[in-house]
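Example 270, ligand magnesium ion.
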Amino acid sequence: MTTLLQAIPAPAVELPYYVPAGNECALFELAWRKRLPLLLKGPTGCGKTRFVAHMASRFGLPLHTVSCHDDLTGADLTGRYLLKGGDTVWADGPLTRAVREGGICYLDEIVEARKDVTVVLHPLTDDRRILPLDRTGEELQAPDSFMLVVSYNPGYQTLLKSLKPSTRQRFVAIEFDFLPLEHEIAVVASESGLSADCVRPLLLLARRLRVLKGQDLEEGVSTRLVIYCATLIAAGLSRDEAVTAAMIEPLTDDLDVKKGLIEVARATLG
Ligand SMILES: Nc1ncnc2c1ncn2[C@@H]1O[C@H](COP(=O)(O)OP(=O)(O)O)[C@@H](O)[C@H]1O
Ligand SMILES: [Mg+2]
C-alpha cells in the first residue's frame, strides 16, 4: 500500500520523537484520510499524547490539545463572548479553532469532561461533520483535514465515569499499552540521556510494579515516570533516591504498600 505519508514531503521541522508500537501510524493516517474520529485507549503515560503530536506534525496540521477535567464545559471547547473594553467579542474555543483551521482537536481524558461536552461532539462525529455554535448562530462545516481525536484511560474508570456507548460508538479506536521492553528502553534512554544499560534495570522494575496494578496499585509505573527517574539519575541523583522519588512515591500514599514496593525495588535492583 502506498500510504499518503509516503507521498507527503518530509516537513522541514524535526518531528516529535515517537517510537511506534504497531500499525497505529497507518491507522491514524487512514482515519484522517477517511474523516473518521479516533479514540485512543490506554494507561496514563504510555505515549498517547506524544503520538498525536507526532502525527499532527507529520501532516503539518495545527494541533489543539485540551486536557479535560470535571469543570470543562461545552462552551470551553466552542467559545464564548468576552468583555473587551466595553464591547463583547466572540472568542473561539480550541475545538472551534481546530474546525476553522482544518486541524486536529485532541481531547485528553475525555471522560473527565462534563456531559454537555459530548453533546457538542455528536454532530461533529457523524457524517454531517458540523459544529453548531448556538451563541453566534453559525454552523461550521468541518474541512476535510479536520480530525477529532480523544483519549481515555479505561484502567481507572469507575462505572460512573466511563464513556457512554452512544459516544464511544462514534469513534474508531486504537488500544495503547506500554511498549515492548527493547523499544521502551530506547525511548527512556533517548528522552533522559541515560545509557540503555542503566535504563534496563529500571524498566525491569517498572514491569514488576505494573503487575501490581489492580491489586495494591491503581496505576502501574508509566513510561513517563521511568523517564523522570532516568532523568534524575542522569542529573546525578543516586539510583535509590531517584527510584523512590519517581517510581515509588508517585504511586501510593499507603505506608504498607510503599514498604512493599521498596522491597520489590531492592530485590530487583540489588
Ligand atoms: N512510543 C513512544 N515514543 C516516544 N516517546 C514516548 C513513547 N511513549 C511514551 N513516550 C514518552 O513518555 C512520555 C509520556 O507519554 P505521553 O504521550 O504524555 O503519555 P499519555 O498521553 O499516554 O499519558 C512522553 O512525553 C514521551 O517522552
Ligand atoms: Mg496524555
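Summary: The chain has a mean pLDDT of 91.
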